[in-house]
Specification:
elongated; mainly alpha; about 230 residues
């Protein structure tokens, strides 16, 4: 076997190579584990609101009038907004855990906040003479109900997927599919609410500005970062 080495001598490095530790799993990192605990506590604070909103949330998937009713009911609208706020940190954490956005954790939080801010500015600044205020607010608030649903689906699919060792690519594809599906349903229901007031063509123009533009800005930021 000596002929495998130059002149029959095995040459070794003068200094030992540095030991490189194996990268920790995302959930095993101390800061991420602490954030998971905090998000769990936040969701527990809204568990009573979740039980109250669960039926309207499911009915809102199939009927746009339920979204208008939820907006008209001040107590339900308040519970919806509060629970959506409590669920938002969990969605940010899921985006980072499943690598849905190419940013670090703080970048995920900032990009989602800027998406929300752009949407709020557009809804508050665009004139809507053809749409009654109640319908306009219902189209605006429908996203909050679907944010709650997205948070639940991410947890019920993502957490078991991580625990049972589902391949990262498949899990990420499922999370992307969930986000696209929820966004599409929100746009459909918001469009139906607006179309009931101003017709399908004008409602589509509203959607392009109010829903598609903020989403396009978020997508462009992600692509630019890559």
């Amino acid at each position: 076997m000596l002929q495998d080495f130059p002149n029959g001598v095995l040459k070794m490095a003068d200094e030992p190579l540095a030991w490189t530790p194996e990268p920790q799993a995302w959930a095993q990192q101390g800061s991420n584990a602490l954030l998971m605990l905090l998000c769990g506590l936040l969701l527990l604070l809204g568990i009573r609101d979740l039980f109250i909103l669960f039926k309207p949330m499911l009915q809102g998937l199939g009927r746009w009038r339920m979204l208008v009713y939820t907006e008209h009911n001040i107590q339900l609208a308040h519970r919806r907004n509060k629970l959506a706020l409590l669920a938002s940190p969990t969605i940010v954490l899921c985006c980072n855990a499943f690598h849905l956005l190419p940013f670090p954790l703080w970048g995920c939080a900032l990009s989602i906040f800027l998406y929300w801010l752009a949407r709020e500015i557009l809804f508050r600044s665009i004139r809507h003479k053809k749409v009654q205020s109640e319908a306009w607010h219902a189209a605006h608030g429908s996203l909050y109900l679907f944010v709650i649903l997205l948070c639940l689906l991410m947890l019920f699919i993502g957490v078991p997927g991580k625990l049972f060792g589902m391949p990262e690519d498949i899990l990420r594809a499922l999370m992307y599919a969930l986000c696209i599906l929820i966004f599409a349903i929100n746009c459909l229901r918001s469009g139906q609410i607006l179309a009931s007031q101003c017709g399908p063509f004008r409602s589509f123009l509203y959607l392009c500005t109010l829903e598609f533009l903020p989403a396009a800005l978020l997508l462009c930021a992600a692509l630019f970062y890559i």
